[in-house]
Amino acid sequence: MGKFMTHQELKVMLLKDPAFRPAYEAESQNPQSGYQIIRHHGDGTEEVVFDSRVSGTDLPTNWMNRPDW
């Protein structure tokens, strides 16, 4: 089994990444009320599975039960 880490440990680790830190700081200064769930495919493409700003609804209860996940 892999080692678990706390949210704070993950944040500290990610803030060391020079690509992540500016995006994190920008989002912290201007947070958006919406969120997205994005699926990353093996070929490098991404699929927005859910976007709260577009649908205006709560997260579907079956979003993790897709057979292709």
From TrEMBL:
This is Uncharacterized protein. It comes from the Bacteria.
